[in-house]
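Thread: sanity check for a docking pose with zinc ion

Original post by kr_44:
Hi all, I'm comparing my docking run against an independent structure prediction. Below are the sequence and the ligand SMILES. Could someone generate the full complex and paste the structure tokens? I mainly care about where the ligand ends up relative to the chain.
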Amino acid sequence: MGGKRLAACASALSDAIMMKRSAIFLCILAVLLGCVCFFRAHAGSAVATAPAQDMSPVQPTIADLAPVSPITKSDDEWQRQLTPAQFAVMRKHATERAGSSPLLDEHRHGIFHCAACDLPLFASDAKFESGTGWPSFTRPFVAANVATSEDRSFFATRTEVHCARCGAHLGHVFDDGPPPPGLRYCMNGAALKFVPRP
Ligand SMILES: [Zn+2]
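Reply from moderator J.T.:
Ran it for you. Here is the predicted complex with zinc ion included:
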């Protein structure tokens, strides 16, 4: 009798261990399935938020090519017109936080204008993914609308880029862009506003 009871006990114990193992196995399976679903969902959203750049050329109009007449305003006037972020970048040479500009995800056909005076500065067909976290362009839309000067701040000599009409600071230009012409106009998105064109 004792032997039979022992055998029954061992069998029950073995069943319990099997059930526990099955439960652990199912838990692991559920976690793995969850991970697969999570990564698939996120891979899908990454593709959805990064549509192909429209690289068809934007043709300048007569208005785009009009001679630039300088605009001069006091700091008080600019402060009233611009948002605090725009004023800090455009009038006080601040640099926006990398990756913060919504214009990084702007891939439509059109023109990036000066956020202060509306001068057309960069076209969508010159925009490229530099990976720096700032909107980047290979060349200005109309050469005369973008001016440069030497910037000796932060113990380095860089080439500052500013709006030829209102003098707003836009960013810097570097010579490590894609060829040709090998330039990278590294712009603060806060200094730009995008206007789509057909
Ligand atoms: Zn301007």
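The chain has two domains: 1-49, 75-196. Hope that helps with the comparison, let us know if your pose agrees.
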